[in-house]
Specification:
- With 273 residues, this protein is of the alpha/beta class.
- It has a domain of 183 residues: Rossmann fold (3-Layer(aba) Sandwich).
- Helix 4 links the parallel strand 1 and strand 2.
- The two termini are 28 Å apart.
Amino acid sequence: MTISSMPGSRSYQSVYEEFDSPLMSRLRSEAYGEDIGQHSWVTGDDLRRDVARLKLSREGKLLDLGCGPCGPLTFIMKTVSCSGYGLDLSGAALAAGRRRAALLAVEDKLELKQADLDSDLALVPCAFDAAVSFDVVLHLRDRRRVFGDIARALVPGGRFLFSDAAVVSGVISSEEVAMRSMHGFAQFCAPGYNERMLELAGFILLETEDRTQSLLKNARGRLDARVRYQSEFEKLEGVTEFSRYQGYLQSIISMAERLALSRVMYLAEARPA
């Protein structure tokens, strides 16, 4: 995924460089209730339900766009015993992903590539049985093009499951938009927009699920855990950036509590040519 960090803020790259530290592992365990190597709003419980939705077999191949440190990707691979292919712009994230794959003994079935999702992905047609992308689409400049690339890369009937944590479902302020965009470029979309883009890209929409309450729980957990380990995070991030990130989480919690910005899961199927 391509992220241009705002001046003064910690980039995803710097987060990934610390990803395997005991501090970050404690944060994930306490914020999510389970450390599966996730960085976004993904939980193990959601993934366990999503595995069935993907209809993957042991012989299947899974594509993850914006895979980050490969927590969800390797979790699914380990659960299904399928092979995986991950794309991400961050070299630090991919290095963390390789370490996690080795830890779970799935490294022989994992292929990773450093790639900017806003550029030509050059995916082989009909190469994958399913695709996932968790909380990445809000950072894309042209999601219709990316959806089209995914549709062509899937076998007919292959499934694509993704989540979008920036679906506008109420009123948000310009200050909240700026805070939610602290990691860089972000697109906020209206309800129904992702559905239209999927249809135009050649998908049949099968299911949507509102996962805002899960995001809210995770954001509160992350906020509280960071307070418990404030001195360690301030040493890592600096006092100013620690405070800034706490404000980011508080803003997300506020928008989720009043149902102004929603996180939605989409499941679609590639139409036969």
